[in-house]
Amino acid sequence: MFSAMKSAKSDAIPKACLTVVQQIVNNDVCVRLIAGLLCIDPMMVAMKSRADAVAVGSEALHTLFEKNQPALVEQALSVGLVEYLLGLLESSLEGVDSPSATKALIVKTLKSMKKDLANGQQVDEILEKSSVWASYKDQKHDLFIQDTTIAGYLTGPVGVAGYLTAGPASQAQVVSDEPPPMECHAEDEEIDN
After folding, report:
1. Which residue from 22, 107, 123, 174 could staple onto 60, CB 3.0 to 4.6 Å apart?
2. pLDDT score of 4
3. In terms of DSSP H, where are the helices of 68-148?
């Protein structure tokens, strides 16, 4: 699959492969196996091939690097992924469906790479030299992730973040100040007579 991302004759194949990878990387076992393959360069090539593949690729990379696999960070450094992602942050991401959400994922990806014990220091050195990174590193990027999907799993109900609520009014039972109605049974009427 990763070789198809680099050598595909049709530009639809790299994006389709990224979409499959995006789903596969949700599984920890798959990520451990992928870390043993040369996968970062083909993913980067696929993202470069089509603007509409950048969001899917960014999401897949984010998930990959959150799984803490040093081999992946090592690959990223060897193929220039950090510099490529910084370039994406600097660009307007024209042709990408949700540029601000994609940039938020890129920042989170870079921050995840920095946490790697084996190679995080090298990632940090590259980032600290970047003027682009200086404008993104301290921002809270959760605000940019919208409730619309990039690739299917960033969805959820829109609500007030961080607050406990009583829920929608339609589900709440209205408590009346009036006492409950008295029921009249046939036995009660016979006693009264």
Report:
1. 22
2. 72
3. 70-79, 81-90, 99-114, 120-128, 131-136
